[in-house]
Amino acid sequence: MGVPADRKQASNPIVLDALKGLPVSRPPFWFMRQAGRYLPEYREIRQRTGGFLEMCYDPDLAAEVTLQPIRRFGMDAAILFSDILVIPHALGCKVWFEDNEGPRLLRVGTDIETDQLGFDNFETHLAPVYAAIKSIRRELASATALIGFAGMPWTLASYMIEGRSSKDWQAARLFARRFPDRFQGLIDLLTEAVILHLSRQIAAGAQLVQLFDSWAGALGPDELRRWSIEPCRRIVNALREQYPATPILAFPRGIGMSYPAFAEQTGVDGVSLDTTVSPGIARARFETQPSVCLQGNLDPVALAIGGDLMIDEARKIVEAWHGRRFIFNLGHGVLPITNPDEMERLCRYLQSSSI
Ligand code: 1CP
């Protein structure tokens, strides 16, 4: 099934206009994890497919699941359905998903060493992802932007050292401090991999990219500079050289007061703010950086509750960021318990709100 014809008329994506600082008539919006378990049509496909990774590597299914929320709600951007862990997988580190438990990986430094990983199979392994991007772009209206993404090196390295999710990323932080040279080797490998993966996504049709550093908040200030800001700066520089017109957003989740320094030192076009950041304080702190697009940051719990509480919180964000570059989003991903009717209510509110 395609996207309705009325959404296919030619026009510039409002999300790209906002990133460039061009005038927009209302807040542009999309949501992290807008595809996923809260949608019955996603659960239906997930159930009859072998597993989550199989969906990521099937171009037709990945394209279909990417388009599901756009057809229902008409967000201003579609984000490729994939996962950050396809990068370690493509480098030769085994990755699998335990049902209802999350990701599992071979552990670097324990089960496998960095020098056993590499690019031999990388682009062949990820070819279905680029095929999915091509077919999504064919289906999408020209007004809807297509977002490519990758995990950032620190977050990827953390999963690769821990072998799974963690509350405090202790093993990864210990490894980085005990073996800084080996850790730097892993970060360098991942930095190259992210650059290659994002270049291929842009070549296939992604019009902007988002970098996820979901666990940046576990780092102290010096570590943040070394393991998050510096690799991000290298990724931004390399992509700008090849694709100067493609905007880059980053989500260094949980870094609080360091958001403005992160934006300045990496040169990204925009930063996605997490739920701990007050929209008003962010506005003040970014006053001297008007060209940085702010993105965020409604609490996914407010969306799950819905109703007036959700709309009031959304309005506060729109009012706080009115008059500067911003894209409305959540402060983290949509929760599986979210009622699609509340997502519909939020989208209608944003579509009818003027700024
Ligand atoms: O059906 C299922 O069980 C799969 C659940 C699921 C989904 C829908 C996972 C497993 N990944 C995804 C898709 C996904 N992951 C997207 C798709 C696009 C979208 O709609 O947003 C994106 C952008 C991601 C990125 C991702 N994966 C991040 C960064 C963003 C974030 O949430 O902080 C991270 C940390 C992952 C790892 C991962 N993959 C899946 C899970 C459950 C996790 C998190 C595990 C943990 O908490 O450590």
Provide tags for this entry.
alpha/beta, two-stranded antiparallel ribbon, 355 residues, binds coproporphyrinogen I, 9 strands
Task: State the separation between the terminal residues, measured CA to CA.
Answer: 33 Å
In what order do the strands lie side by side in the largest sheet?
A: 1-4-5-6-7-8-9
Mean pLDDT: 96
Ions, cofactors and other bound molecules: coproporphyrinogen I
Q: Which structural category do the helix and sheet elements fall into?
A: alpha/beta
- In terms of DSSP E residues, the strand content is 5-15%
Low-confidence regions: 5-9
Q: Quick one: biggest sheet?
A: 7 strands, parallel
E-strand count:
9
Helix content: 40-55%
Number of helices: 15
Indicate the overall shape.
Answer: globular
Computed over alpha carbons, the radius of gyration is 19 Å
Order of helices and strands: HHHHEHEEHEHHHEHEHEHEHHEH
Give a brief rundown of this model:
With 355 residues, the protein is of the alpha/beta class. It has helices at 14-20, 40-48, 52-56, 59-73, 86-90, 122-139, 153-162, 170-178, 180-204, 221-242, 259-266, 279-285, 300-305, 307-321, 340-352, and strands at 77-79, 95-98, 102-105, 145-151, 208-213, 248-252, 270-272, 293-298, 326-330.
